[in-house]
Design a protein that fits this description.
26% helix
Length: 160
């Protein structure tokens, strides 16, 4: 019997959390929220302020915000749906922190994102160095635009 899938997600404003919850219901998967050690404030997320926390972090691709915990049950999973908002056309650097905190060898990671206007950009190629070489990374795409539960289930079925 295959292990249940896990939906791991980072959500700064709540949009990705809602999408992750819908995806978890469609996949019959458990949820794990990736939380930063220091939560983001509204001012931290002001992308128009070049000195805001998110702007500073995203301008340094090597920066790794610390996680609040490292208790995700990765070992017993075959498939991990990994969600996040798109920041500057890629995943926030805390997603790299999450990937570098666990052993994903032999696992399948399916990326999904939320975005107001952009697509996935270079997300997969920028995340690839954060996992072992035999980890499979695939993209579902931007899911906050998925309107119905049936459409979400149809997308999920392609990956489970």
């Amino acid at each position: 019997m295959k292990a249940k899938a896990l939906v791991a997600f980072f959500s700064a404003s709540g949009t990705t959390k809602l999408t992750a919850e819908r995806l978890a219901r469609a996949a019959g998967a458990d949820l794990y929220e990736i939380k930063p050690e220091t939560p983001y404030t509204k001012a931290d997320l002001n992308w128009m302020d070049k000195k805001s926390r998110s702007s500073v972090e995203m301008s340094d691709k090597s920066f790794r915000p610390p996680l609040a915990d490292k208790s995700a049950d990765i070992e017993s999973r075959d498939t991990i749906f990994l969600g996040f908002p798109i920041w500057w056309y890629v995943a926030p650097t805390i997603v790299n922190t999450f990937l570098e905190s666990y052993d994903f060898s032999g696992k399948r990671i399916v990326l999904f994102a939320t975005s107001g206007s952009s697509g996935m950009g270079n997300t997969a190629s920028e995340l690839r160095p954060s996992v072992s070489g035999d980890t499979v990374i695939e993209e579902m795409g931007v899911l906050n635009r998925v309107k119905s539960d049936d459409e979400m289930k149809n997308l999920v079925e392609k990956f489970i």
